[in-house]
Amino acid sequence: MYMSRQREATTTYPDYYRDEAHQSKVYKKPEMLVRHFLHARGFRFKLHDKTLPGKPDIVLPGYKTTIFIHDCFRHGHNWRYFVVPETRSKFWLNKINTNIANDTKAVKALKKDGWKIIHLWECELSLRKLKGPFFHY
Fold first, then answer.
1. Is beta strand 116-121 parallel, antiparallel or unpaired with respect to 65-70?
2. What span, in angstroms and rounded, lies between the C-alpha atoms of 23 and 114?
3. What is residue 127's predicted lDDT score, i.e. its pLDDT?
4. What would the pLDDT profile of 10-59 be if each residue is shown by its tens digit?
5. Alpha carbons 104 and 117: distance in angstroms, whole number
6. What's the pLDDT tens digit per position in 83-128?
7. Residue 24 maps to a domain
8. What pLDDT does 68 receive?
9. 65: domain range?
10. Comparing C-alpha atoms, which of 124, 33, 113 is closest to residue 66?
11. Domain total of the chain
């Protein structure tokens, strides 16, 4: 019999970090929307270029442009629904602030090298806000 894998309330830290490490490798829907949009319009791009600071989500080398697609919660976007979690709030605030600092450092390094930077936020890419026949994804 098939049983769905649900996270137990007593998840240990090694399990949590293993799951989080897996999360970063899974392509998120906002990223897939942008990739589909660019590819359909003839743009060719690289994904997660490790040679660039901040490892941008999408790199358009011919246009010397990088695209960062940020998760609103983990990158501290001023989203009206943002709430600091009650459990482990110190950990999450530290993580979010570290992500913001790393993002700022990466943007400065990319601009210094002459790259154009586009920031897209997950809340901006919600399906309700995207209009037109192309975005029926």
1. parallel
2. 31
3. 57
4. 555 666 666 665 555 556 778 888 888 888 889 999 999 999 999 999 99
5. 12
6. 788 888 899 889 988 999 999 999 999 999 999 999 988 887 765 5
7. no
8. 92
9. 29-131
10. 113
11. 1
The overall longest dimension of the chain from CA atoms, in Å, is 57
Q: What are phi and psi of 58, to 5 degrees?
A: -135, 135
Rounded-to-integer distance, Cα 45 and Cα 48, Å: 10
Q: Which two tokens stand for residue 24?
A: 């970063």
CA pair distance 72, 107, nearest whole angstrom: 17
Does 78 score more than 90 pLDDT? Answer: no
Tokens representing 51? 């040679």
Alpha carbon distance 53, 39 (integer Å): 24
Nearest to 60 by CA among 77, 75, 79, 47: 47
Task: Evaluate whether residue 73 is within a structural domain.
Answer: yes
Distance in angstroms (rounded) separating the CA atoms of residues 78 and 76 = 6
What six digits make up the tokens of 113?
């090298």
CATH at residue 120 = 3.40.960.10
In the Cβ-directed half-sphere of 68, how many Cα atoms lie within 13 Å? 22
